[in-house]
Amino acid sequence: MKRVDDPMIPLAQRIRGLEMPWNRVLSSTMGPAGAATALGPWHPQEFWAECVETIPEAGDMMVFVFRRMDGAPLAFRSGQYINIDFPVRGEGAEPVSRSYSISSAPTEPWTFSITIKRDPKGLVSPWAHESIRPGTVLEMLGPVGAFHLADYDRRARYLLLGAGAGITPLMSMVRTIHSLPGQADVVLLYHGSAPDRFAFSEELDFLARADFRIKVIYALGDQALGDRAHGDRAQGDRKQGDESVGAASAWAGKTGRLSTALLEEVVPDANGRQVFACGPEGYLNTATDCLREVGVDDTSVFMEFFSGDRATRLEYAEEVALAGEIAEEIASSTEEYYEQQPAALEMYEPEYTADGPVEVTGAPVEAVDALAEVPVEPEIDLIVPDAEVDAAVETEPTTDPTTASAGEVTVADVAPSDEATVIDPRTLATVGEGELTMAFVRSGINVRVAADEFVLDAARRAGVKIGANCQEGMCGSCKVVKLDGEVDMNHQGGIRAREIDAGKFLPCCSTALSDLVIDA
């Protein structure tokens, strides 16, 4: 799409922000239609699915397209995964469970796809490549995982970092963003081992041409660069002026491993974006260091490990186990609900009041120029009370607001920059009742809260806008950053340990243990 200079021709417009289609259903104050509820990713489920298509991809990968045997759509969030039982040892033997990211978009939920890279030394992947064909039926659990796009993001500016098979959840994100009408700014930096081993390259090239919101950058590692020395050419190279990986001539993409210099070159505004990274442990460890060096705060970084140490594997195992427990609980209560239905089709009817059908609510609709830049989240320099300033200075005498880590209170002991908004929680108006105080620095208000009251309930009562869907600590949609203070959080898998370490928490299932300062 190009901008038209003729003033008689109206400019194309989009709604501001990126909103998932189910967000308007989940935000409804009344019970939504049964069919619409089915499309909302409320909770994990146990189900059977049959393969309907297999698609070979580059890099020894295979795409497997499934549909649920019960005819229901698979409701999930972009970036989540499903746990699958593979009968690799034959019928009747104990199946082998593996988790795979969903690579399709949740906006097309009637079928869904996973992408499996073949590992010759592996147990499951060779069996999957050789045995799964259209008609194969497998037992699954999902969706699972806290690595996903938000249900609503007013400033949808993303940097996606992927290496090898790590492209699979990012592909779901790219496809989802392309399918939605909202304003967004996406940069995908995709590392591969050879020019002909970039999975989904043809589709990514098309999306980058068709959707100006999406930019795709391919990069080869150092080893691949050495193998390509002396001007050798092979199928899958790109030629100068051609952004397609499939162009057969000299490589024109980026070269070298992920580095600070590469990030500064291809995405100089990285510190104004949310980062979603997926790949091997070594790649993600490098990404963590590089992102910090270019100024990206830990609270803006989300990672999905495809390999890792024992602690990482244990965390994912616990995540799947919790999802299974939730699925069993939901299944039992759902059966009771179905038994109470007077007629099967009534579950698809909308709710009614005396005034007629209930209308769902969601994010406010605001039209913007389709080519307008996505706004950057404003920077905040936080001034804390004198006592806390002294404590902060003792432990971190050279604290710099541009390099403060997540959960660390920034001390503004120098003149703030022109671009920053300086907020002193002591100057904010205070509302509510309770023995503790929560300072919401972006909303500009202090809220009193009782020690036994959930943070989200007190915030909403005071008019603080925090998105929340399940309100049970499961979906992670209410996730915010805690700048100071302590909370007691009892979640159900909606947040991961790395995010908690970075200062994030879920207000829907958290109570205050002290006064809080919250970036909301």
TrEMBL record:
Which parts of the sequence belong to the FAD-binding FR-type domain? 44-150
Q: Do you know which Gene3D superfamilies this protein is assigned to?
A: 3.10.20.30, Nucleotide-binding domain of ferredoxin-NADP reductase (FNR) module (3.40.50.80), Translation factors (2.40.30.10)
Cofactor(s) recorded for this entry are: FAD
GO terms assigned for molecular function: 2 iron, 2 sulfur cluster binding; metal ion binding; oxidoreductase activity
Q: Domain 2Fe-2S ferredoxin-type: where?
A: 434-520
Q: Does the keyword Transmembrane apply?
A: no
A Pfam match is FAD_binding_6
UniProt KW keywords: 2Fe-2S, FAD, Flavoprotein, Iron, Iron-sulfur, Metal-binding, Oxidoreductase
- Name the UniProt record assigns to this protein: Ferredoxin-NADP reductase
Q: Which organism is the protein's source?
A: Brevibacterium antiquum
